């Protein structure tokens, strides 16, 4: 059956499709591919904008490799099968009175897909999912099942948590978890000057801070999440009707209609962004963490995201605005701004440096020429600030100019040579970013 990603930008027509239901069945599928000299790739839910998941010969589907394998309350870890969607993991963890430390904006992705591309949220002591792993298990190109943790195969653990699907097929992932916690979310519109002027302070005083800049305006939406010392039963979520009006109707339905209409009348976008930014009002609510971190995204878009060093972030953002203001682009989606503490995951965008993320979106049906020139312009600014591109989002970088951005890039390539010498797991995207 043909494969297509969420944004509709990438598609593939693999010859064979298998849905393994256990690690042993993954081994059998990999051994068969090896015998047949085929490539084999497990896909997630296709939420990467790049062709990183595109399968060529054999596609392994994740849908039967799901669920929780083990809960260790002493070590405070939970092990899940690789194909488990994050929303299922979150619901199961809530049921157990547990939670991940941090996560991104949505929970549709599989745990393996999200971890493999370096998916992250904002703030906390670890923004990236890969930095919250304590172990994983994968099947190598030789069909060998390997465990990895700080104690077992520590080199594989150090290098392979963000593995891009290039090292093997993940079967299980073990996450550090915490007791279920409640966040207070404070959303507040601000002027550009106020938001930039107080950004460092907002980051310092809240656990998770996020901002959105509406291009062609001087308006920002800021979001600050603070951990409360409260029981989940004390949470005061947004009332259902207000939540539906704000999140579904305004953020998804109206925003979808506006951005789709704007594709036909781009001249109206600056005014539309002014209106959208001004229509937002401040609100505060509390809820269990995963319900604050994630929300549905029903408007389909394309996205590029870069991490620059934290200290260069505000300067990069000012430069972004300067370039957008001087251009004739009309951009209907806000630029998202997040931060992450440094981690020790070799191919994480936050490896060894505190990071500042800038994410650039366009509507999936917006004019391709504007989309491409906006992303090219923004990528040039990101390069000037030593940026590292998100592996699952659009960018034009290739192995030769990614290597200097990652101190352990050569070690990662050597591990790939060891675990997948016959390149069972490769595809066009991996050839571009890692080489043959
Ligand atoms: C609406 C939307 C919102 C998003 N929000 C965020 C965000 O807030 N933060 C962020 O950082 N990113 C975000 N992303 C990006 C997204 O998290 C990543 O692209 C993620 O990889 C998608 O997971 P997936 O399950 O769809 O994996 P896919 O895109 O299907 O696959 C990604 C990679 O994982 C590999 N893979 C999957 N399963 C396995 C396995 N079992 N073993 C080995 N490799 C495997 C695939 O082969 C591929 O290389 C968002 C994307 C969208 C569309």
- Please state the average pLDDT score: 94
Strand count, sense and barrel status of the largest sheet are: 8 strands, antiparallel
Q: Any guess at the CATH architecture of the largest domain?
A: 3-Layer(aba) Sandwich
Q: What characteristic shape results from the CA principal axes?
A: globular
Outline the structure in words.
The chain has an 8-stranded antiparallel sheet with strand order 16-13-15-14-18-19-17-20, sandwiched between helices. It has a 5-stranded antiparallel sheet with strand order 6-7-11-9-10. The chain has a 3-stranded parallel sheet with strand order 3-5-4, with helices on one face. By secondary structure, it is of the alpha+beta class. A hairpin with a 5-residue loop joins strand 9 and strand 10 (145-149). Helix 9 (313-326) packs antiparallel against helix 10. It has helices at 23-36, 86-95, 111-116, 154-160, 192-205, 240-262, 269-279, 289-293, 313-326, 368-384, 399-402, 409-419, 428-434, and strands at 3-4, 11-12, 16-18, 40-42, 58-60, 68-72, 77-81, 98-99, 133-139, 145-149, 169-176, 178-179, 182-191, 208-213, 219-228, 283-288, 301-309, 335-340, 355-363, 388-389. The chain has 2 domains: 42-179 and 404-434, Uridine Diphospho-n-acetylenolpyruvylglucosamine Reductase, domain 3; 182-389, FAD-linked oxidases, C-terminal domain (Vanillyl-alcohol Oxidase, Chain A, domain 3), CATH 3.40.462.10. The protein starts with a strand and ends with a helix. Bound molecules: flavin-adenine dinucleotide. Flavin-adenine dinucleotide (FAD) binds at residues 6, 41-48, 52-53, 62, 82, 104-106, 109-110, 112-114, 116-117, 119-120, 164-165, 169-170, 297, 390, 392.
């Amino acid at each position: 059956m043909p494969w297509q990603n969420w944004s509709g930008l990438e598609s593939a027509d693999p010859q064979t499709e298998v849905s393994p239901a256990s690690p042993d069945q993954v081994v059998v599928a990999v051994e068969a591919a090896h015998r047949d000299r085929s490539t084999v790739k497990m896909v997630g839910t296709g939420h990467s904008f790049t062709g990183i998941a595109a399968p060529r010969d054999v596609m392994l589907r994740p849908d039967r490799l799901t669920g929780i394998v083990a809960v260790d309350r002493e070590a405070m870890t939970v092990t899940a099968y690789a194909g488990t969607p994050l929303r299922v993991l979150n619901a199961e963890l809530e049921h157990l009175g547990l939670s991940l430390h941090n996560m991104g904006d949505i929970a549709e992705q599989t745990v393996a897909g999200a971890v493999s591309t370096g998916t992250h949220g904002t703030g906390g002591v670890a923004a990236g999912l890969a930095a919250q792993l304590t172990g994983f298990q994968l099947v190598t190109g030789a069909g060998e099942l390997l465990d990895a943790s700080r104690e077992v195969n520590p080199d594989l653990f150090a290098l392979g948590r963000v593995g891009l699907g290039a090292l093997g097929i993940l079967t299980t992932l073990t996450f550090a978890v915490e007791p279920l916690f409640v966040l207070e979310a404070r959303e507040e519109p601000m002027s550009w000057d106020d938001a930039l002027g107080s950004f460092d302070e907002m980051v310092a005083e809240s656990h998770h801070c996020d901002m959105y800049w509406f291009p062609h305006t001087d308006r920002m939406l800021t979001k600050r999440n603070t951990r409360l010392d409260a029981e989940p039963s004390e949470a005061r979520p947004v009332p259902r009707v207000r939540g539906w009006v704000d999140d579904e109707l305004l953020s998804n339905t109206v925003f979808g209609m506006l951005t789709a209409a704007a594709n036909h009348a781009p001249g109206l976008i600056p005014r539309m962004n002014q209106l959208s930014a001004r229509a937002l009002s401040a609100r505060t609510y509390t809820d269990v963490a995963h319900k604050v971190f994630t929300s549905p995204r029903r408007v389909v878009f394309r996205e590029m995201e870069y991490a620059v060093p934290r200290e260069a972030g505000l300067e990069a953002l000012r430069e972004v605005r300067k370039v957008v203001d001087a251009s004739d682009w009309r951009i209907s989606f806000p630029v998202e701004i997040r931060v992450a503490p440094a981690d020790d995951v070799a191919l994480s965008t936050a490896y060894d440096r505190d990071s500042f993320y800038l994410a650039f979106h366009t509507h999936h049906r917006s004019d391709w020429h504007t989309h491409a020139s906006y992303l090219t312009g923004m990528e040039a600014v990101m390069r000037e600030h030593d940026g590292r591109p998100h592996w699952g989002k659009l960018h034009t970088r290739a192995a030769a100019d990614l290597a200097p951005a990652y101190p352990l890039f050569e070690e990662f390539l050597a591990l790939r040579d060891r675990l997948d010498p016959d390149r069972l797991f490769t595809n066009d995207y991996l050839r571009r970013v890692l080489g043959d």
